[in-house]
Specification:
homodimer; alpha+beta; Alpha-Beta Plaits; six-stranded mixed beta sheet; 16 helices; 22 strands; globular
Chain lengths: ~525, ~525
């Protein structure tokens, strides 16, 4: 899971997220550039009994993270179950959760835990105990050994599968609870933890955990839900996204069989003279989906449900745009011109506010080197549509199907492979205000951004029936989610970027800010 | 090399050819169905001293084929050179060619040989001594052992790489010369042989053989050139194609880099909101290439050079159409409707007379299972265009480039990977008349067809400067060119289909018919 993923040049921040990570998009991600610095990272310098315990427990926290990384749960490989859930439950118990329960689902079990501190405020936490598959031969350091390695420019990092996605940040969050206990204090708020072990395969059974009546009731008492993450870019900056676009991923499949025209198997291309081509059929269908500008969605009704940005959202956007660096972003994306040759400001407004139809991939017929004289019977376009409020995944899928049918392409299969509605969290929510306060307490002025152009399924929490505030939170930095040599910084070489202790401190800060 | 390739159900005949085989199209080929039978195959029953020697030399001919198959030359693997050329030269010498010469080229050597029988007529022969790559693990019989195997329905077959493509037919052709000598006779005509060892990689250096002045001069003296092949379908029928469409194979490549818009590397798909997509750009370019019917080429000037069929060609076509079986062809191709819901007759006229633009394949972005949220920086369409006289490969390529530029897609790379002009041979040529006579002498009424919808580079011989008649010829049957378990029938279980001796006899018959 990752709300943001960073490029190596340290200034990039992408729209990647946990749901999209499972499609392996990390390699292709570039990011948004943040201009300017934020002053030194000061969090750990605060004199405080709890903060002092963080340093005292540093080695134990690192050891806890190493032992967790050594125990991978990988749903796609049916590896590490039910041990992963049992270990997750044990970690929660160790951190002070009084009620800890493994929640069976139709797939891998989840974990539900509560920590009653007798406080007036309750915060919810989302954890995942599973990790992405890995190939040890691609790693410079064994992915389950979680070795500490010195990396120039970064400092001392821990290398292992799950280091940043997301056992590292989650360990930091739990370590904050250990620090309170070690300092002889109760946490200043109550906590509700929901965890799953199938995040990397798309969370197919997580609603069975969240919406079990007693779990849902516990979540309802919370002021919002936090997804721990190392949110810092390598310049130390932090962004708070107040929402994210929804997404529909689907395949458009044109075949001779469903069309009733063209061949039902690949035939010699000479027959194109007398046989219809399912590939031309797909090309013509695709061409109807965007306007002549090759960009703007042309699906009937696509824009009808769009709710314009509120004045408050606009103000947040306008305040943040000047902080973004156009030249650095263009360089990172390899882009010379924005769509329509728009200026940077307008292009960023478009990025935030416009829904899209994108072709992720085309595949049909012969795809190897050179040519092969066939008339293919089948061609596929992989599509993603990004949705802004109040578009819905189901509604937009229907619009697409209706459009195709209306234009004579009703035979083309529309196979949705994933998706969910947009998510929004108010900047006036207690959760966001507390996040801002906690970051500021650490010497960082977070950049608010009204809506991530990427997507994450926060609507599970922000939508009906829970309608909670939700967002990623946490200091620290890691990279390589879903890639070899995944890491999380333990001791940072850059004073503006938190190491593990700073990450732990950021949760202490959030808990206090909320309480 | 194969002018025709057959499906297992024995009634199919495809437009596949030697040049296209090297792109591996065989697997996707279906064919044209020939209706009706042709009477028993009677060739070997003729009482004749030369024909009698064919049977006497049967075992020696089989052994010669086996020994040749055991010596593969594969240009793509740089395997079997120069030994393949030396062996080809030796085979020519053994068959009675007096002048035999290895012709160096910039690639693998060719062979040029002449047999002067003191006859007034000279016939040219085209041979290839190379074979397609193979993977022995895919074969049921070792591909270089050329074992004789009984195959139900076919008879006794020889299984090995090159068995039908084309060492078997070539061995049969040479065996005819052995038979004349064994019968104490001179062949009734002079022969000129041109052979190459790079057919399977597209004959890049063959013009250096054909157009060497002395070789060209020798070819000029011939009445035409024959490409030996097992031309019989499993029902015994034989087709004589009087020409073939030309072809241009190319890739259309859309990239952010050449476009100057969109990204120069894959980026996260959320950026589609503000970045142009090279994939949409390709889709829009493709959409301009055909009319709204999704089929008819819309490239400006595409039809301008078309020369309508002559009255004679029309008569040949109309005479042959009734011999084609619509139901069997539809079944073989997996097609329920012809383009435009045309009747069979009109669809066949279209097959013969219309040029095409076909998409062989689409590939861009993410092509694996499920989706991946990227905006690809590159997408490719693999295209073939089939050309009818008097379209040319170079001219049609230019039309395409001009069209793309005119429609705003001048940035899209047009990378031609192969192609050549259409070929035509007159039904009134001595070569075709002799082929018809020879087939009839064997009890087979060949089906004339004005133009193969597929392509073969006969224009090397039929075009300027040689302007020779050219065509595939020969009885016999094989299958599996470019596939595992390639075979050629040695002893046929079907009296309508020639075995090896019948194939040899067909060359004796052709030589006599020409003389």
């Amino acid at each position: 899971m990752a709300a943001t993923a960073r490029d190596d040049d340290s200034i990039q921040r992408s729209g990647l997220n946990r749901r999209e990570f499972l499609h392996g998009a990390a390699a292709g991600a570039a990011g948004l550039a943040l201009a300017g610095g934020h002053g030194g990272f000061l969090f750990a310098s605060q004199p405080d009994a709890v903060i002092a315990q963080i340093a005292a427990e540093h080695d134990a926290t690192v050891k806890r993270l190493q032992e967790w990384i050594a125990r991978p749960s990988i749903a796609a490989e049916n590896r590490g179950y039910p041990e992963g859930a049992e270990y997750m439950a044990e970690l929660a118990r160790d951190a002070g959760f009084q009620h800890v329960e493994i929640v069976p689902t139709k797939g891998k079990p989840g974990v539900f835990a509560t920590l009653d501190a007798g406080a007036p405020t309750t915060l919810a936490l989302y954890f995942m105990y599973d990790v992405k598959q890995f190939d040890p031969s691609e790693w410079s350091s064994p992915p389950l050994e979680a070795r500490l390695v010195d990396k120039p420019g970064l400092g001392r990092i821990i290398v292992g599968r799950g280091a940043t996605n997301t056992k590292g940040p989650q360990t930091a969050c739990l370590a904050a609870l250990h620090a309170f206990r070690a300092a002889g204090q109760k946490p200043p708020l109550n906590l509700v933890l929901v965890a799953e072990g199938e995040e990397e395969i798309g969370s197919p059974n997580f609603p069975q955990v969240v919406f079990r009546p007693d779990v849902e009731a516990a979540l309802r008492k919370s002021v919002g839900i936090v997804i721990p993450l190392g949110n810092q870019a390598l310049d130390g900056s932090v962004e708070i996204n107040l929402g994210a676009k929804g997404i529909v991923e689907l395949e458009l499949v044109s075949t001779g069989e469903t069309w009733g025209r063209g061949p039902t198997h690949d035939v010699h291309s000479s027959y194109e003279a007398q046989i219809d081509s399912p590939v031309w059929h797909l090309v013509q269908a695709l061409d109807t989906l965007v306007r002549a500008d090759g960009h703007t969605p042309a699906v009937e009704g696509f824009f009808d449900k769009i709710r314009p940005l509120s004045a408050a959202q606009k103000a947040i956007l306008e305040a943040s745009i000047p902080k973004r660096d156009e030249a650095a972003t263009k360089k990172a994306l390899g882009v010379a011109h924005w769509f329509g040759d728009e200026p940077w400001h307008d292009s960023l407004v478009r990025l935030v506010t416009q829904p899209t139809i994108n072709i992720e991939g085309l595949v049909g017929g012969y795809t190897g080197p050179g040519g092969k004289t066939i008339l293919p019977h089948r061609a596929v376009a992989k599509i993603d549509m990004r949705l802004v409020p109040d578009m819905t995944a189901a509604g937009t899928l229907e619009l697409l199907k209706t459009h195709l049918a209306k234009h004579g392409f009703g035979d083309i299969e529309v196979n949705m492979t994933g998706g969910y509605d947009p998510t929004e969290t108010s900047p006036d929510s207690r959760l966001v205000k507390a996040q801002i306060a906690a970051y500021r307490a650490a010497g960082i002025e977070p950049v608010l951004w009204p809506r991530l152009a990427g997507s994450w399924p926060g609507v599970t929490f922000t939508g009906a029936p829970l309608r909670l505030a939700a967002g990623m939170y946490g200091l620290g930095h890691g990279d390589g989610a879903h890639a070899p040599d995944e890491y999380f910084i333990i001791e940072s070489a850059n004073p503006k970027v938190a190491g593990l202790d700073g990450a732990v401190g950021s949760y202490v800060g959030l808990f206090r800010a909320l309480a």
